[in-house]
Amino acid sequence: MKNYDILKKFIVFEGQDGAGTTTQLKLLDKRLGETPHWVTAEPTDHPIGKLIRSVLMGKTEAQPETLARLYAADRHEHLFGKGGIRDHLDSGNLVVCDRYVFSSLAYQAITCGFPLPWELNRDFPLPECLIYFRLPAEVSMERLNARGERDIFENSPFQQKVNERYERAVSLFRETGMRIVEVDATASVEEIHGRIWRAIQELPI
Questions:
Q1: pLDDT at residue 205 in the model
Q2: How many CB atoms lie within 10 A of CB 85?
Q3: Other CB atoms closer than 10 Å to residue 23's CB: what's the count?
Q4: How many domains does the chain have?
Q5: According to DSSP H, which parts of 101-188 are helical?
Q6: What is the distance between the terminal CA atoms of the chain, rounded to a whole angstrom?
Q7: Strand-strand pairing, 126-134 and 179-184
């Protein structure tokens, strides 16, 4: 197993569509209050991230391999660019990010095979803590069906594959020194928030 750089005070939320990561990010942001912190997400709001979102909504055409590379480029800027994750960590902030490397290994591995997203993402540093929202594919689709507009990945066959790939992606990093906290994403919003809050309080930060 490769020796990974673990970024202290960096926490990542991961889970397939409908898992509730965005909701929990907002709740945690509010709960942290005046504690020095920064909440963020991928794809970012930077130009590369906006292009990714355009592809996901079917407004811009791109080959799967192109999208995989766009995600990696957006992530690199997010991490190392001015005002990005590294800058916030260096300033002493706790950083919580909705999606990171693990999403690429789950989603892009389906559309263009595993080797490319692995090569593009294997050298990124890992968060101190990964909070993985486990959600059955059928529940994911029930929640997505209750929404309005969907992106190109939000369909039942694809979500089943995402579920399987997420399990594989997370398992790849179990011996790296990164803490992995699994939460039941079918639980209530309050229960999930409580589990996340306890996990953060247990970190040596």
A1: 62
A2: 23
A3: 13
A4: 1
A5: 101-112, 115-121, 137-145, 156-171
A6: 26
A7: parallel
